[in-house]
């Protein structure tokens, strides 16, 4: 998995995982993969009800 390439592809776009708790697990896994493989510092997560937002800098 190339996290840097993934970040380049989704730059300026929104990525959404819609569904149940299994999709939430996939969302968290994607965040962990991006943070680890792209060498990013832990990014703040913003929770608003059932919506979770992360902004990588």
Topology:
Blueprint: H1 3-10, H2 21-37, E1 45-48, E2 51-54
Antiparallel strand pairs: 1-2
Helix pairs in contact: 1-2
Written description of the protein model:
It is a single chain. By secondary structure, the protein is an alpha+beta fold. The chain has one domain. It contains two helices and two strands. It has helices spanning 3-10, 21-37; strands spanning 45-48, 51-54. Strands 1-2 form a two-stranded antiparallel sheet. A hairpin with a 2-residue loop joins strand 1 and strand 2. Helix 1 packs across helix 2 (21-37). The two termini are 20 Å apart. The mean pLDDT is 78. One of its GO terms (cellular component) is Golgi apparatus. InterPro entries: TBL, TBL_C.
Q: Helicity, in percent?
A: 40-55%
Strand segment tally = 2
Order of helices and strands: HHEE
Uncertain segments of ≥5 residues (pLDDT<50)?
A: none
User: What is the straight-line distance between the termini?
Assistant: 20 Å
GO molecular function: O-acetyltransferase activity
Family: Belongs to the PC-esterase family. TBL subfamily.
Domain Trichome birefringence-like C-terminal: 1-39
InterPro entries: TBL (IPR029962), TBL_C (IPR026057)
């Amino acid at each position: 998995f190339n996290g840097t390439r993934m970040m380049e592809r989704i730059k300026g776009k929104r990525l959404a995982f819609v569904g149940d708790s299994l999709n939430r697990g996939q969302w968290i896994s994607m965040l962990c993969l991006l943070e680890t493989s792209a060498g990013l510092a832990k990014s703040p997560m913003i929770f608003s009800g059932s919506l979770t937002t992360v902004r990588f800098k």
